[in-house]
Structure to design on (469 residues):
């Protein structure tokens, strides 16, 4: 009898556990019903908001609440202006996934947000397409906010394999604080004057952008501040108002959080068409800045009061209407005013860039710059008879009013400044976005040496083994 009672209690516990596990999963389908799914989690809801609300209201003790959206296009009320979280969720952990292709289509309605995320312990959104949303870009209420909003009290958010397309707002993704990851997601053909993705990391935890693609957007693709790390991402043909592809403002990272393997190409902007960086300290490794143009200062890269390093990177084929076709470096960080610390180029190539006035490859104005095994070659001015790879103004590296640089080519100052108007070259580029083969020559030599050394080591080991036998 006692064993029977224990067995019954065990089975009852399993049934309760099973029911709770069942209640942790909610489904959305274009053929679902919002009325029935509110009382029975095994039935699909018709709208995304109803499934989110039902998950929030659940009190079965689920550790993670999962909402699965079945394939289809989701329109209208209940599928836009979505809110996840709030006080009713009590710090829950959410996952939102899809089966097949899922598109949330806002149909160009004003004030249509995709998501507002708040008061969650964690959230993962995977595999959704967000399209055709529109909110005013010039109102005080919406300024610098976006179509997908992550509030500071959302502890950790992961957006993975999502597609944001053909939408208009101050920003498309507005992430003002917190931590998390933006992985394998695409932002294309959006209009966002405050930045397509506006991400402000925290002082303690970095926000990771990895495997992302920003292409053909009107507005700076990524506006980043504090601790934001970018890896293996592509920024292609974005057109910014002031900055071009990336604006890094006060991003200070240690070397362990380097920006690596990024491609920044064919972007347009007034100051730093590829990258505009202010008051930042970032290590860029194996990054390419190619064919960015229409910038007044810094066709490829603009650095202001920077302490950043570029390692084994390529700055090639960029154009500036005035100064610094490849790079424009200016100012010294306040904390480094009495030192020679500043920008470093290490085994980085600056080649085939053009400027309208000064510094076809590099323009350095009252800043610290150190070039180590980094050739600045083949750069030209767009007009006039002056040829200039680099130009120094004020001091460059150590002494005020003296052009003192680590390479003598930096002191090649033109005697006159051409008076000209720059007409951008709008001819479509024909290169394939890959890093220039010629730029890899210094590193190819090293690879050959290592290969030969390895082969000799194998042969010697083989001979020694044969002698022992």
């Amino acid at each position: 009898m006692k064993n029977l009672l224990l067995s019954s209690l065990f089975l009852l516990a399993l049934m309760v556990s099973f029911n709770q596990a069942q209640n942790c999963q909610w489904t959305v389908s274009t053929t679902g019903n919002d009325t029935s799914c509110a009382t029975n989690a095994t039935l699909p809801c018709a709208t995304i908001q109803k499934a989110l609300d039902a998950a929030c209201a659940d009190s079965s003790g689920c550790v993670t609440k999962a909402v699965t959206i079945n394939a289809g296009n989701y329109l209208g009320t209940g599928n836009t202006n979505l809110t996840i979280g709030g006080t009713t969720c009590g710090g829950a952990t959410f996952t939102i996934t899809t089966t097949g292709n899922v598109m949330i289509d806002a149909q160009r309605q004003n004030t249509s947000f995709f998501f507002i995320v708040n008061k969650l312990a964690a959230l993962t959104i995977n595999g959704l397409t967000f399209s055709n949303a529109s909110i005013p870009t010039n109102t005080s209420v919406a300024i610098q906010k976006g179509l997908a909003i992550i509030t500071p009290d959302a502890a950790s958010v992961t957006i993975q394999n999502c597609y944001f397309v053909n939408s208009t707002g101050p920003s498309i993704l507005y992430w003002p604080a917190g931590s998390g990851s933006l992985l394998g997601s695409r932002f294309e053909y959006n209009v966002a004057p405050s930045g397509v993705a506006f991400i402000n990391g925290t002082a303690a935890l970095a926000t990771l952008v990895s495997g992302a693609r920003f292409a053909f957007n009107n507005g700076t693709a990524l506006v980043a501040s504090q601790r934001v790390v970018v890896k293996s991402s592509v920024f292609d043909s974005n057109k910014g108002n002031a900055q071009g592809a990336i604006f890094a403002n006060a991003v200070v990272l240690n070397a362990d959080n380097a920006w690596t393997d990024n491609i920044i190409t064919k972007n347009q902007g007034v100051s730093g068409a590829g990258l505009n960086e202010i008051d930042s300290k970032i290590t860029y490794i194996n990054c390419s800045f190619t064919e960015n143009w229409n910038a007044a200062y810094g066709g490829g890269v603009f650095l202001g009061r920077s302490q950043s390093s570029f390692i084994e990177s390529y700055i090639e084929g960029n154009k500036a209407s005035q100064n610094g076709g490849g790079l424009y470096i200016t100012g010294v960080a306040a904390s480094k005013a009495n030192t020679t610390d500043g920008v470093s180029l290490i085994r980085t190539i600056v080649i085939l860039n053009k400027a309208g006035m000064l510094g076809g490859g590099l323009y350095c104005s009252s800043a610290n710059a150190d070039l180590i095994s980094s050739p600045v070659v083949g750069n030209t001015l767009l007009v006039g008879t002056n040829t200039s790879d680099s130009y120094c103004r004020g001091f460059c590296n150590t002494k005020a009013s003296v052009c003192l640089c680590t390479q003598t080519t930096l002191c090649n100052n033109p005697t006159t400044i051409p008076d000209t108007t720059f007409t951008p070259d709008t001819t479509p580029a024909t290169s394939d976005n890959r890093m220039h083969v010629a730029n890899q020559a210094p590193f190819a030599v090293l690879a050959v040496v290592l290969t030969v050394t390895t082969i000799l080591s194998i042969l010697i080991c083989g001979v020694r083994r044969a002698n022992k036998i």
